[in-house]
Every structure is written in structure tokens, then in C-alpha cells.
Write a structure and sequence with these properties.
Elements lengths: L3 H10 L2 H6 L5 E3 L2 E4 L11 E4 L4 E4 L5 E2 L1 H9 L3 H11 L18 H20 L6 H9 L4 H7 L2 E2 L5 H9 L4 H6 L3 E4 L2 E4 L4 E7 L5 E8 L8 E3 L15 H4 L2 H5 L1 E5 L2 H9 L5 E3 L7 H10 L2 E4 L5 H16 L4 E4 L8 H8 L1 H8 L2 E2 L1 H12 L5 H17 L4 H14 L3 H9 L2 H4 L2 H4 L5 E2 L6 E2 L5 H15 L1 H10 L7 H16 L6 H10 L5 H12 L9 H30 L2 H20 L7
Parallel strand pairs: 12-13, 12-14, 14-15
Antiparallel strand pairs: 1-2, 2-3, 3-4, 4-5, 6-9, 7-8, 9-10, 10-11, 15-16, 17-18
């Protein structure tokens, strides 16, 4: 990686308009420039380029960054290569640019295991071609998996004699410990065998395309499990992996979508039908790590889990988890057809599968259907909780046919009369809607028009967004934040932006140079770098936020302090109830009561 001062020098000599216009046409509009975004299918110019701030932002797909970030994303090259490319476009030279970029140090233990598993993957692919592999080739042919699909997904075969795999790896210089550590060694008496023996092999990759494990499919009726998956190893943790993620990481963002499925064959079925952007779960519920991977795609997630009872329950849980993390998503509408994608492709063909996968419903419609048909609500408390879940959606709907239709659906799902629900809608959200329910209303933009869709933000979120907006404009705001606020509560991404701004202020004079700030984030190596960069460009170019002032900073700081204190009191109450501590619970309730009184009468809570 190049030094930070060299990256900053390149950015100071770069003109972002010149850089972007060397790749795509741009058009001047007021003080800024606009262009058709190359990172999604754009028909109306949705990319805004700011010469003043030296950043770009697409207000439909969310992609943003500086000149280096644009080149890196457009050409799909490394950060260091993009630095050199920007320097070349802007005719900037520096001896350090022609020097070799230092190689990233690799953990020798990790290198030992990846070398071993790579050799085993090579062996499996070769074994598919030998005479014994005919049974596996026939199985794949019967599933309509041709040579192109086999090559793309790295499918192989493990010979029935499991000692052949072990002998091959030993001949390549790998120790029994390495073979055991990659999760394929099976003790058979005094010998070691491959526990994948006699099966078709589907390699499992990490997000960078490194093989980390295997899923072995039974092809002989021997009474064993249909699939044998790699155990947890230093390389493989099933909750961290999405099947086929490494193949879609570049295209999903560009195309604007990614399907989440349950099976490997379903992923391949969609690919054969001309829908390449699909990943599969690893037989588990959607994990926090997998949601993190999906967020990095910065596209619409389309859930297509099984249509049976357990599958619908898994979809419901996934909806809540994705909504909580502000991931934009919809659900494939089965319309009573419970066949999986692979079955539809084989029975009805590619066009039928495409039609099925393009029938998408919003989360609220799926959830209403779930509570109406799949899970009947039994207790009054359950009915109230579900009603609270849907009230924010109703409040966002203008009066009309859609509002009345949703009102009837919610009435059917909860059993409450439509007029009673209508009255609740008229009341203030703060009186009826719990904080954790409002968080289920996710921010997004219409993918066709690019117009913002209203999101219900809490006072705390609004205050923190405004504070960060000020800090992006003013060094004084950064100093004020560091002295009077210090930390943020509601969004880890905003908290990370604040940390980078403080780090920037410690190393630079004057107001933040957003191009340099984005380069700092990019070169930091953090997993969520793209998400943090997107937040910076989004807030920096949000014209709806007010200009920075001393009064605005003070107002934001007060709201952040007051709302954070109230949140802490609520959490303390919940902990006390959970632990059964009456003393702790009484103190927490006292603090919470003081907070309520303060909001109602304007009094500050007394310190206990």
C-alpha cells in the first residue's frame, strides 16, 4: 500500500471531473456535474459529481467516493492500481509510484492450510475426469450441469478409495496435521482416509474466492447423509460463508440485485436461466456475518427461501434481521407454487423460472401474508405487537386505495377492527410506536425514479446525522464534537465516520478534504470501508440538511445526550427485569421516569 502522503498528493493534483469524464460522458448542471451511473442500469443521470468537494455520489444505487474510488470500482482493480491510474490521467508523477507496492504479509499458518486445500481441490477436479468419475459425471449430466457450469463452480469428485486423496496430499508435501486442519481427514483404524470419499464435491469459497471447505453430495444409495459438509476449521466457519458470493461480488452491485436461496442447485438453476446474481445459505439461519456480506453488495436483496412452514418462518426472521440492519430487500412471491427454482427450471424451463423470480413483494406484504395464513395470532399481546409492527407503514401511506387496502389486510391479520386501527394511525407515533418498531422502516430510494422514499428517523438519528454533516464541513465542528459529545449511539457506521474525522483532524489542518478522508477510509483495511465511504458521500451531498452553526451544534449535542440517556435507562430496565434484580430495576425505573418527566415538563433529571 502506498503511503498516505503520496495518496493525498495524487488526490490534490487530481480533478474528479477530469478523471470520471475520461471513462464516461458527464454534463454540467449548476455548480456540479451529472452522469449516467455506470454501476447500475441507469436511464436518467443519477450520479452527481462535485468539483468543490471532489467526490461523486449516485443517489439510486448509493455508490460514492473520490476519484481513486471511482477508477477502482469502474476498472475493478486494486486500490494501489487505481492510485497509479488517477496519477496517469492527471499527468502527476512521483518516483514512489513506480516502485513496487509492498506485499501484504500472509500468516504462514493460513498459507499452509490454503496451499493444502487448493491442492485437494485440484485433485477433486481431476478425479471427476477419470474412469471412476463417470458415475459423478452421469449424476451431474442428469441434473443438467454441463461443462461450463462444472468449471465455473469448480465441481469435482472424491474417489471411493479415500486414501487416494490423502496419498496425493502427502506426495505434494502436506503433513497429516494440515490435512486434518482443513477438515477432510477421517481415521480408519491405523490409516487416514478422506471422509468425502465417493461423493460429488462442491467447493465452498470465502468472499475473496479462496476455497475454504467442501460440501460433498451422496451419489450412491448407501444409507449415508445426502450432504457431508466440512466441519468448522481454521479456514471454514459456515456462518461466515455464502455459497457463490465470490462470483457475484462484482456484478450484483452493478446489476442492482442479489437473490438469497437455500440450495447450491438453486443457485446454478438461476445462473442457467440467465440470473447470475444469487447466493445460498449454508443450512443455517441468516447470520450477522452473512448480513454484513450482503450489505457490502450495496444492492437489493431478494429472499427466496423454501415455501414450506420452516422456510416461511426463516424468511420472516430474515426480514426482521435485514430490516434492522437497513438492508434494502424484497421477497419472491410463491403464489402457491412451492417448487424450488431447480425443479421449476427442469420442469417448466428458463422463462418460467425468470417469471417466478421476478414476482417480488415488499416486506410488509409478505409479513401480512405470514400472519394471515402461516402463523395465526393467538393472544391479545401478540396481536398488539404485530399491530405495532405495521403502524409505521400505515402512517407513511397517503389516504387512498392503497391505504384502505393495507388497513383491511392488517385488520385481517390482527383481528382488530379497521376503525380502531385508523384511530391509532391518527395518533402521534411517539405515543404508540415502540423505538425498536420504527427501526424496521428502512431507508431507500425508488430504483426506477431515484426519488427518496420517506423514512421515519428518530430524534437521535437525525441529530447524529446532522452532527456528522457539520463535521464533514467544518474543523470547528470536529473539535466541538470531540470536546462535547465524544461518541454516537444509534449507528455504528456514523460512529466510524466520526472516528475517521477525528483522526483526520489530528493529522491535518483546516476543514476536511473529503477526497483525502475517503482515501483514509479506503486504505484503512476495515471490512465496512465501502459502507463508511457511502455514508460520507451521502451526508456530504445531502442538501436537505441545514448549514452548520454554533446553535445547531449545541442543539444536536443536547439531543444526543438526552436521547442516549433515555436509551440507557430503558436498557437498564430491561436488564433488571431479565435478571430479576428489584433494586437495580427500581433505580432504572426512577431514571426512566425522570426522563419522561423531563420530556413532558422540560425539567432536567436529578443525578442519583
Amino acid at each position: 500500500m502506498y503511503s498516505q502522503d503520496l495518496i493525498e498528493a495524487v488526490l490534490k493534483h487530481a480533478d474528479i471531473v477530469q478523471v470520471i469524464s475520461s471513462y464516461i460522458p458527464v454534463e454540467k448542471k449548476g455548480r456540479s456535474y451529472v452522469a449516467l451511473c455506470p454501476f447500475h442500469e441507469d436511464k436518467n443521470p443519477s450520479m452527481n459529481i462535485s468539483p468543490e468537494k471532489q467526490i461523486f455520489k449516485c443517489f439510486v444505487c448509493g455508490t460514492g467516493g473520490n476519484a481513486i474510488g471511482f477508477v477502482q470500482k469502474f476498472e475493478k482493480i486494486s486500490f494501489s492500481e487505481a492510485v497509479r491510474k488517477v496519477a496517469q490521467i492527471c499527468n502527476y508523477s512521483d518516483p514512489r509510484l513506480v516502485e513496487d507496492v509492498p506485499k501484504v504479509k500472509v500468516d504462514p499458518n493460513y498459507a499452509r492450510l490454503t496451499a493444502c486445500i487448493d491442492d485437494l481441490q485440484t485433485f477433486y477436479k481431476y478425479a471427476l475426469t477419470i474412469p471412476e468419475g463417470e458415475v459423478a459425471r452421469n449424476y451431474l449430466a442428469n441434473r443438467d450441469l454441463g461443462p461450463d457450469v462444472i468449471a465455473k463452480y469448480g465441481i469435482g469428485y472424491a474417489p471411493l478409495d479415500g486414501q487416494l486423496s490423502i496419498s496425493f496430499l502427502k506426495a505434494k508435501g502436506h503433513s497429516l496435521k494440515s490435512i486434518d486442519d482443513i477438515g477432510v481427514a477421517l481415521a480408519r483404524g491405523e490409516q487416514t482416509s478422506d471422509h468425502n470419499a465417493g461423493r460429488v464435491i462442491f467447493p465452498l469459497y470465502d468472499p475473496k474466492g479462496q476455497v475454504v471447505g467442501f460440501s460433498a453430495r451422496r451419489i450412491r444409495d448407501d444409507g449415508t447423509s445426502k450432504y457431508v459438509n466440512s466441519p468448522e476449521t481454521p479456514l471454514f466457519h459456515k456462518g461466515n460463508v455464502l455459497y457463490n458470493y465470490h462470483n457475484v461480488v462484482g456484478s450484483a452491485h452493478r446489476d442492482g440485485y442479489c437473490y438469497v436461496l437455500e440450495g447450491f442447485m438453486d443457485v446454478m438453476a438461476l445462473d442457467k436461466a440467465g440470473i447470475p446474481n444469487a447466493v445460498a445459505l449454508m443450512g443455517t439461519a441468516l447470520t450477522a456475518q452473512q448480513i454484513g456480506l450482503l450489505k457490502r453488495l450495496r444492492c437489493e436483496i431478494r429472499l427466496c427461501l423454501d415455501g414450506d412452514g420452516p422456510g416461511q418462518m426463516a424468511t420472516m426472521k430474515a426480514c426482521l434481521a435485514l430490516a434492522k440492519e437497513n438492508v434494502r430487500f424484497r421477497i419472491v412471491d410463491y403464489q402457491g407454487d412451492l417448487r424450488d427454482p431447480d425443479e421449476i427450471l427442469r420442469q417448466d424451463g428458463a422463462e418460467a423460472l425468470k417469471t417466478r423470480m421476478e414476482r417480488l413483494v415488499e416486506a410488509v406484504d409478505f409479513q401480512l401474508g405470514y400472519y394471515t395464513h402461516s402463523r395465526k395470532l393467538e393472544t391479545p399481546e401478540e396481536r398488539k405487537n404485530v399491530l405495532a409492527l405495521f403502524l409505521p407503514y400505515l402512517r407513511e401511506k397517503p389516504a387512498g386505495i392503497e391505504f384502505e387496502d393495507m388497513l383491511v389486510k392488517i385488520s385481517d391479520a390482527t383481528g382488530f377492527q379497521t376503525e380502531a386501527i385508523r384511530e391509532l394511525v391518527r395518533q402521534s407515533p411517539s405515543k404508540q410506536t415502540p423505538l425498536d418498531v420504527t427501526s424496521l422502516v428502512t431507508p431507500t430510494r425508488d430504483p426506477t425514479s431515484g426519488k427518496a422514499i420517506t423514512r421515519m428517523l428518530s430524534k437521535l438519528e437525525n441529530a447524529e446525522r446532522t452532527m456528522i454533516h457539520c463535521m464533514l464541513e467544518s474543523r470547528e465542528a470536529i473539535d466541538y464534537f470531540e470536546k462535547n459529545v465524544g461518541t454516537l449511539s444509534t449507528a455504528s457506521v456514523l460512529a466510524t465516520v466520526a472516528e475517521f474525522l477525528i483522526e483526520y483532524a489530528n493529522e491535518h489542518e483546516g476543514n476536511p478534504d473529503l477526497g483525502v478522508l475517503l482515501a483514509m477510509i479506503d486504505s484503512s483495511g476495515i471490512d465496512e470501508a465501502e459502507e463508511v465511504q457511502s455514508a460520507v458521500s451521502d451526508l456530504a451531498m445531502d442538501e436537505a440538511l441545514p448549514p452548520c452553526s454554533e446553535k445547531l451544534l449545541g442543539d444536536c449535542a443536547k439531543i444526543i445526550a438526552d436521547e442516549s440517556r433515555a436509551m440507557s435507562a430503558r436498557m437498564a430496565t430491561r436488564r433488571a427485569i431479565a435478571s430479576g434484580s428489584t433494586e437495580e430495576g427500581a433505580e432504572a425505573n426512577r431514571l426512566l421516569a425522570e426522563e419522561i418527566k423531563q420530556k413532558k415538563w422540560g425539567k432536567r433529571p436529578k443525578k442519583g
